[in-house]
Design goal:
single chain, mainly alpha, DNA polymerase, domain 1, hpI Integrase, Chain A, 4 domains, three-stranded antiparallel sheet, 17 helices, 11% strand
Amino acid sequence: MIEDKKKYSTFAVMFYINRGKAKKSGMCTIMGRISVSGEMTQFSTKIDIDPKLWSAKAYRLKGKSRETMEINRKLEALTNDIMMHHRELIETQNYVTAELLKNKVCDISQKKKTLLALYAEHNADYEKMVGVNRAKSSLSQYKYGYKHTAEFIENTYGDDIPLSQLNLSFTEQFDLFLRGKKGFKPATVNGYMVALRRVVKRGLSQGVIRKDPFVGYTFKAKLHRYRHMSTEDLEKMMTTSIKSRALCFTRDMFIFSTFTGICFIDLYYLTMDNLHQNGDYMWIAIKRQKTKSDCYIPLLNIPRKIINKYEEVRKSNKVFNMVTSATMQENLDKVIKLCNIGTHVSYHDSRHNFGTLVTLLNGVPLETVSKMMGHSDLKTTEIYAHLTSQKVGEDMKLIAKGTKRKYKLFEDKKMPITAEYNYFEYRERYEKKYNRD
């Protein structure tokens, strides 16, 4: 015990006021400061006083009035409580931090001694930020994550599990539960494990989780390869005759997103106020629902025709009378079948079409594509607008044309040049041989 006392000899508690942050009434709040082995944290006592009565040397109020003596007794009792929690943590855990003491004193940890309680608190705070800097779809991911975590805990541990029992074994068993009993695909498992990881990081930052249960865990989900439609399939969709008005509308919306890059949720809320005429050009100017970033998209001829097509049936200021995303995808599946397209197509693939077929393959710089798609990071655009062999070939043609007369290869007896090397002829033979895209 003597060694423990020496180990935590830097433990200290003090109180102070910040005169520079006085309230309009002139009162100042008494703040507490806890220091443990060089780590420091602060908290509010929620006690307001007249700054003239405060003694910076004694850390207490001056005078002997009834109110002064009562506040000094509260500060003394608070100090004793912190010291008591300090002793308890050393005896029970042989481990103490300033943050843990603060949580004990402020009664923060009492609500988060278990994983599900911490998860629920995380989701409640996340929900408050939806519409500010968080997306509603992301909240659904956390809610489903909570549901599956609760099911796993109920089957394995009971009602809940204390945060102190979280370890690598728990993490790996939960992973196995998602893959085995629930039968989720790797990408889905990865999503729920990432959600749990963020809840755990919240607990670590608050000091209520001592050891990270994800240390040693490896995320096994494979990187999802985003794909756009082929030019042939897109042409099929655009030229196939469709009699159903509902399916025709779905096809038109997909094509509109293909030539604007606008995602479903932004299209759903698109209004006439978002359309701007600048000379001979019309633009879409929106703030993306997901990232809140500004997005400016020039309207090409095809999307302009689609807007005009539905002008007479417009019911409100919204550009289109949109249906739900589920209905849109259900109808899109029917459109794909009618057009004899052999691969699955999601509505979001229209955004990939824009990033690759409409823009990148037509020579639009990646930076411009990023701005039109509303990306804050160029790396995100690179995922959407991945390079194709067609794009590589076209770029190489430009290089070949520019270097044909500019550079000459030294020729001697040991290295005679009998014929001009044709890169494109070689590439075509290579792709035919190995059936490359």
